[in-house]
Amino acid sequence: MEIKELLKNLTEATGIGNIREATEKASGYLSKFCEVSYTDNLGVIAKIDGARDYTMLIEAHIDQVGFIVTNIDDEGFLTVALCGGIDLRALPSRQVDIHGKKKIRGVFCSTPPHLSENDVVYDKIDNLKIDSLLGEKAKELITIGDYVTFAAGFNELAGDLVCSRSLDDRAGVAAVIELASRFKDKKPPVNLVFCLSDMEELALRGAKTSAFKISPDEAIAIDVSFSDGPDINPLDCGKIGKGAMIGVSPVLDSDMSKKLLMLADKFSISCQTEVMGSSTGTDADVISVTKSGVKTGLVSIPLRNMHSECEIISIPDVLSVCDLLERYIEAVNDND
Amino acid sequence: MIELIKKLTALDGTSGDEGDIRNYIISEISQFCRYKVDSLGNIIAEKKGKKEPSKKIMLDAHMDEVGLIITSITDDGFLRFKTLGGINTSALMFKRVKIGGKIPGAISGKPIHLCSGDEDKKLPKTDTLYIDIGASSKKEAEKLVSVGDRAVFTSDFTECGNKIISKALDDRIGCAILIKLIKEYDEFDFTAVFSVQEEIGLRGAKVATYSVNPDAAVIIEGTTAADIADVAEEKRVCFLGKGPAVSFMDRSTVYDREYYLAAINSGISVQPKRAVAGGNNSGAVHLTRAGVRTIAISVPCRYIHSSSSAADTWDIMSAFDLCKFMINYIAND
User: Fold this and answer.
1) pLDDT at B178 over 60
2) CB pair distance less than 8 Å for A111 and B88
3) CA distance linking residue A264 with residue A271, whole number of Å
4) Which domains are assigned to chain A?
5) Residue A126 touches chain B, beta carbons under 8 Å
6) Is A2 exposed, middle or buried (0-12, 13-18, 19+ CB in 10 A)?
7) How are beta strands A103-108 and A95-99 bridged, if at all?
């Protein structure tokens, strides 16, 4: 499958709160390769039966960052709260989709040139209003509690990089779908359960309940992590195009991290190590403490401009995650 | 008219690089008037009407839009840039752009998760931002872009009810009005100038006005509408949906009082621009040679100089009507 096309389709669909276009699109792809067994408000679960009664969970989150409407004034300006950590400084003049009774294009108000922009302190989202351009009619079409997302498209950049909104974590979702496709015609050694969980950006809620329902024997989360740039300390980030970032952290199973690194080396899959001092800030944190505990690994795709409408990833990095996890699944019995 | 604005905003033309806009405008007007292109790239078009006016009348709209110019390429293949025209730093951060008319890129910076202290509460300096085009080295980047290339915002033209959202409404709206005047207005002769380099210091209009040597001028512009949330009534300047704004004074010009009052009393829905702020080609035009009596007719635009300026289609049609009224008024004066 063409990963670029898959990512374009997945990022063009919206996934936040009750807006479940992305979930539907992704389950459509998954259902070609496996049985989509369960869909609820917090995620999608699909499985491929394996040779042995042992369940391996492969997880990515389907939701994206955005906003939720908290007030609508008489002139059609909306006050919103954040769903996820978003850079407030980059919001003025940004176009958004307001998911009201219909999809409405809005613009974040920007400070007009005759009022000094330098006076603005970007500490509260309450100070940044969204212009619905509907005036007093806004209240007919928009309701408090409606969701708002960035309105930005998909671009192919040079060097197999792509730029879009929501690559966090549709890149991971694309990897899950690609991985599922690779086991369509070969029986995996263990049961594979693919889960696309909701509400990761809201304190990892979806993975918590999905992991409970699945109750896996082991799990690997696929997420994105910080990548390089001119003003970014190279020690704080991975490097785009250099392959899967294999997570090493006290909350992750160290044998799994070692095995992932060993397999990358053995099969010449490009990878890099991402060491985290404590928790990972990903669904791996909650999956690992589900029920009586699940040994969990984390593999991340390097991403630039996180939580902006200009997230950037490398297609070969997504493929290296798939290559690595395919090898991992095939070798999953080797330790036993 | 709106279709014309859509076509004009889809084209890219930063200051000094207005060729695509110029070619398109010429294709629209060439059957309806005589025109020439001067040495800076201004289009100067002579439209014949049924009658000769008592004064030589010039109408101006500028072709250029705000944008970026690539100043250097880092060893890692990132592009550094300067702005052409005034653009807020917040309008640049994490924004999609198109370089040299074809190469997509993203204005990039440090994600807030990696900011320390209150670094994420203040705007960074524009010169710390950079464009990522996906190149992994200077050599790879140089295959796609060159220093001196221009970049513009990537933005879809969106129509919602009677509002439009687009880049470059300042001043493609003016260009569209002027094209429509050339096509449809035929009472009196007038000279239409589609000028270059407004955003970097009113340079095109200065020389064009010298060549045309008019008695009176009408400048068609887009202006800041600050009728938005959290801006006090007296600082709102002008309002969407209340007709074109007419200025008595701004930072570049003290406007002709008689023309200003004529516009206000025209019977067309018009609003005074309630601030001595901003400026436009009038600044250069009204001081040309021994002076030119000048009026500016401005279409209110929210979020001007960004990827998402917004205007009201009814204001645009009223501005078109007011232009016709002012030509007649000046011609009969």
Assistant:
1) yes
2) yes
3) 7
4) 3-64+165-330 (3.40.630.10), 66-150 (2.40.30.40)
5) no
6) exposed
7) antiparallel
Q: Which residues of A touch B277 (CB under 8 A)?
A: 113-114
Nearest by CB to residue A104, choosing from B109, B160, B310, is B160
Whether residue A84 lies within 8 A of chain B, CB to CB, comes out as no
Contact B114 A159 (CB under 8 A): no
Give residue A280's pLDDT: 93
| Three-class DSSP labels, chain A | CCHHHHHHHHHHCCEECCEEHHHHHHHHHHCCCCEEEEEECCEEEEEECCCEEEEEEEEEECCCCEEEEEEECCCCEEEEEEECCCCHHHCCCCEEEEECCCEEEEEECCCCCCCCHHHCCCCCHHHCCEECCCHHHHHHHCCCCCEEEECCCCEECCCCEEEECCHHHHHHHHHHHHHHHHCCCCCCCEEEEEEEECCCCCCCHHHHHHHHHHCCCEEEEEEEEEECCCCCCHHHCECCCCCEEEEECCCCCHHHHHHHHHHHHHCCCCEEEEECCCCCCCCHHHHCCCCCCCEEEEEEEEEECCCCCCEEEEHHHHHHHHHHHHHHHHCCCCCC
B52 classed as catalytic: no
Q: Which residues pair with B293 in a beta bridge?
A: B216
Partner A contacted by B72 (CB < 8 A): no
Residue A143 is predicted with a pLDDT of 97
Residues of A in contact with B120 (CB under 8 A): 87-89, 122
Half-sphere exposure of B46 (CA within 13 A, CB side): 9
pLDDT of residue A336: 46
Burial of B29 (0-12, 13-18, 19+ CB in 10 A): buried
Residue A103 touches partner B, C-beta closer than 8 Å: no
Short-list A20, A25, A26, CA closest to A40:
A20
Q: What is the mean pLDDT of chain B?
A: 95
pTM: 0.92
Verify whether the Cβ–Cβ distance B121 to A122 is below 8 Å.
yes
Please list, in sequence order, all residues whose beta carbon lies within 8 angstroms of the beta carbon of residue B99, skipping any fewer than 6 positions away.
B70, B79, B105, B131, B133, B144, B145, B149, B150, B151
According to DSSP, the β-strands at B150-153 and B67-73 are: antiparallel
CATH of B2-65+167-332, one of 3.40.50.720, 3.40.920.10, 3.40.630.10, 1.20.1330.10: 3.40.630.10
Task: Quote the tokens at residue A305.
Answer: 């401009």
Interface confidence, given as ipTM, is 0.92
Average pLDDT over residues B290-315: 95
A116 close to B (CB below 8 A): no
pLDDT above 70 (res B152):
yes
Length of chain A in residues, anyone? 336
Q: Which of A90, A157, A306 sits opposite B133 (nearest CB)?
A: A157
* B257-264 vs B313-332: helix crossing angle, rounded to 10: 130
For chain A, residues with pLDDT lower than 50 are 336
- Yes or no: is domain B67-153 CATH 2.40.30.40? yes
- Mutation target to probe the B interface, by most B beta carbons within 10 A, among A89, A123, A130, A309 is A89
Beta carbons within 10 angstroms of residue B79's beta carbon: 28
In angstroms, rounded to a whole number, what is the distance separating the alpha carbons of residues A303 and A314? Answer: 8
Residues B47-80 have pLDDT tens digits of 999 999 999 999 999 999 999 999 999 999 999 9
Task: Check residue B126 and report its DSSP letter.
Answer: G
CA A283 to chain centre: 10
